[in-house]
## 1
Amino acid sequence: MRPIASIGLGDLVDLDGYPVHTPDSAVYRAAVDTARVGLRAEGCAVLGGFVRPEAVVRLNGEIIERKHATHYSTQVMNPYFHTDFNPHYPADHPVNTFIQRSSGFIPGDAWDSGCATDVLFRAPEVARFIADCLEINALYCYDDPLAGLTSNICDPGQQFTWHFDTNDFAVTVLVQPADEGGLFEYAPQIRSADNEGFDAIAAVLAGGRQGVRTLDLRPGDLQIFRGRHSLHRVTRVGAGSRSRHAAIFAYTLEPGVIGRVERTRQLFGRVLPAHEEAERHRVRSDTLLD
């Protein structure tokens, strides 16, 4: 393996198809425009083959090297990551519909500074490109010491059930797909900042397929997804399948953002003093359940 210092952006990103280093080029603008169409229509854009095939192999090797640091958890939860019955809602309400989530996360403090996954996450050219796709001025690497750079692991038999994100958007790279199952599904814009959309959510939780999209993601595909208002899941990985590995790159609109204590503990099994300090000063941006 080459020294970490030798990793360049061109070693990782298909700069012919996605010239993130030349934002004034016609190819760059075309890629951004295509992503914007999907994000405007359904809150989702898939940039196929963004990561070079040989780089995908390298990213997967880094995940495998750090898999021992994965925090696995199994919870029966509702789409809002709550685990307790709420007597203020009917028993068949989405708030009281609980499905098992079983998966793992490699935390941010397991990654070496300068490894290929870290270089890709922290490349300012990539952050600028994603910001342009989202039609915002700038993005900053999430400062959360555990949730900034992570990898989601779904081993055979595991699933990440229907849920909403607390952040406005997520950026992921599929590194290793499952042989069976492990598909990303979502119901676009099923709720809004001022409408919880409980009836539509209940229909999906009951097995309804109206409005549900299934993505056929391939290794190296970069996905930009607005998961705050779109219900989504990763379906159960087959019992005889290989694991599903995805790199998760978290960005924020402002620098210095730290994640919420409750969600951090659910996903990583621990919190750090930085999380507790940030929680004392947190202000919510909306009134959604979560």
## 2
Amino acid sequence: MKLERVTLRQIRMPLVHFFETSFGRTFERHMILVEAQGEGVSGWGEVTAGENPFYNEEWTDAAWMILRDYAAPRAIGRELAGPQDVYPLTAHIRGHNMARGGLETAVWDLAARMEGVPLWKKIGGGARREIPCGVSIGIQDSVEQLLEKIEGELAAGYQRIKMKIKPGWDVDVVGRVRARFPAIKLMADANSAYTLADAEHLRKLDDFYLMMIEQPLGHDDIIDHAELQAKLATPICLDECIRTAHHAEQAIKLRACGIINIKLGRVAGFAEARRVHDVAQAAGIPVWCGGMLEAGIGRAHNVALATLPNFVLPGDVSASRRYWKRDIIQPAVETTSHGTIAIRDEPGFGYALDRDYIARITVREESIG
């Protein structure tokens, strides 16, 4: 296959409700859509970087430049044996995995559409026809508001609740949630808000039989997580610091975690996501699919990823309407009454594009090639 042209579109989408983590509130998303074109066919990807360099070093404006000036030119016009060739073509770009992943996932979608097969089949998935879904709930204005939101998500059928925590919004709040919902699958996500000096404080979370504590320490740390995990009964789930399969191997060797979250953007696309998946599976470490407030394209890609066999825990892939009044795909992603998303068999990521809406919310566009 040959990639002939790449078109970048930056879109602006307001969230239905603000989303707060330990590093601030998000009210709207500025996302880059990547259209990869070849042989009269288009595949689509989505850059999952935030508007600011807080989750990691990437943000929307920088991702645009990386894609336009570095990643896309290295892939356009090349004879590719398949979409797996995109990762090594851009691997010498230090960091910027989310920008690289936006291009790489678009080429996987392009290849699937060229072959007339679903994306999940092209990446080697299909271990399940429905993926189990959880939700991620940001920090709220009050505990009462948090409890109300959890009640609503459970009523919608979601199988697991992830709540964001930070210093001052952690042990007491988790305790109140657990007291109100003693039997639910519950986890806490710290987004690197703590240090090893907080180990004794974090040990108090062991009282609430959480599924996991996600990335409590530094975004680039593995060693301190290993020391912390030895002090906790609750499994640590690593997120930000696992950017490659080699990082996963190191974390497992050091016993720094019991679970790994895989995000397509964080690991630069499907090729490396599969390698992280395989490393974890071989070690008996379960994985799940994390979310980055994606619009419909990124959400559909996450659904495909979560059909790989070791995605045995409910991920952050939920219905479009939790975040958007109107999504950029048709139909919007929906969940079943028992908290799953059924996979689709249409070619590529399985949904039609709402091109009129995409055009309406596009704030800039540029083609390369």
## 3
Amino acid sequence: MKAYVLTDMTWEEVQGALETVQMAIVPVGAHEQHGVHMVESCDAVLATEIAKKLGERMYPHVLITPTINMGVSPHHLNFPGTISLQPETLLAILRDVVRSLKRHGITKFLLLNAHGGNQSTLSVASSSIGPEEEVDIYYAKTTASAKETISEQITSTIFGHSCEREVSEALYLAPDLVRTDKVTKGNFNERGRYMQLRPGKPIQGFYRYEEMTQNGSIGDATKATRELGEQIVNEALENLSVELMNLLNVKPESVRF
């Protein structure tokens, strides 16, 4: 096998894999609007594809679980098609996944997240479900660690949703996510209340996405390329692999890194 992907395995194959598997990687996405040029399954698909690539690099030490393909997305609900979980619903799903896999001997988990709105809930999962179940739960954004490429190649002041970064990743990993004939820039409201509440501001809080952008996108997706997506994804995979090798105490020669 290229990677241990639970959805592609029989119970007998899983039983054999558990002889070497130390960690379950749980892809976490969302089902929400992504502007006029990306489909609403974007986050779930990107989380899945990056998790599989990470699983290939970290084989045979990790197992990839089914994707949690809906997330905490209330800020997108006024755009048609968005489905949002309550934070407690996502926590309940994660608790059940952890409890199930703990029965099979897995005690380390990485929640690999492709949707920013999930991060605070995943932090709670790490600090509450982990101690409750006596397991280690870590969480990471899929490509947030690709800091060098992002700082060098992304020029938009505000980006992160259906932007040049995310569209580039999709063009590399799952091009069917992109309506290439409709790619456009984010249509910002420059004076919106959201400017006071964005991450990094002294005070943060809830705002609806239409307060920030009329078309549901931010950044400038017209600058997206497949090559940029590959560069971002590969830098992130390299950094995540190094961290996982340290957490799992495995040597580089024992993985495909």
## 4
Amino acid sequence: MPADHSAAKVSPILTRPRLQLGRWLRLSLGLGLLALLARIVNWAEITPLFAGLGWAFVALALALKGVSLLLSGLRWQIVLRAGGSAVPLRRLVRHYWVMLFFNNFVPTMVGADAIRVLMLNETRSPALRVVSVLVERLFGLVALLSFAALALWTRPELLQYTTLSFAALTALAGTVGLLGAILLPELWWWALRWIERFPRLGHLIHEVYQAGRQYRRAGRTLLLTVVISVLIQVLVIVSFGLRVRALGLEIGLIELGLVVPVTVLLTLIPITPGGWGTQEGLYLLILGTIGISPENALAIALLSRVLDVVFSAFGGLLWALERHP
């Protein structure tokens, strides 16, 4: 059955011998960063924040993660349907959940979105798998980073955070460029004569070109993708704000609109397994630019980590059931 095949595709990737050294180096780096962060903060200031944790805010933040996951699966389904592939929503939500599990628990060098590509065995076209994941992901990032641009537009004084503002606007421009390259493949089609020297790659790129043109003509699909992407990112920002409130802290909504997109984007970079160490360090760095103390920033990072681990653990159960139905 499809579920078994999708799980089987992922397992060999995780056990390739040539990835073992890099995997352990990244894990060591993450543990080292966590140890460093543990030494530079005053834990006496962090403990009271968790002692008075607002569990209602925590529960609501988890609920919003569930709604966001469902909407992400729906967005992916719409994108795939435009490419001529009908995949049940429950399967796509399951793939998404398994991806979250790998992203948080498994020290693999394969990116989280690559896991989704490998598991998507409901369509035989490699290009459709790749393009659907890229389009779905890039629309989400454009929507998220647009909130950062909106925050800077409505509150020009936030431009004083020069590095943060530059990172947000540069990332937005780069993400829009990548999305445009997929939806407007004519911009790079001239390079195909060099790519065709590698037959398998050339065939894949040709299919990507066809898929990009197909998506561009699907105006209703693009509109729905934009709307759902905006809704998802609103939930992401609100969920982040709920974690802050759960700790009894306050960060303005506009400031969240600038901080959250940059934080989410940078934590997607797979420097360490699951972002362990790097994610927490980025929280301290980015939140510190708007005046949040290292202790408060680390408390937010730790609460976010716990919620991510708890929520994504169910994806591991789904993957285990696929391997051993």
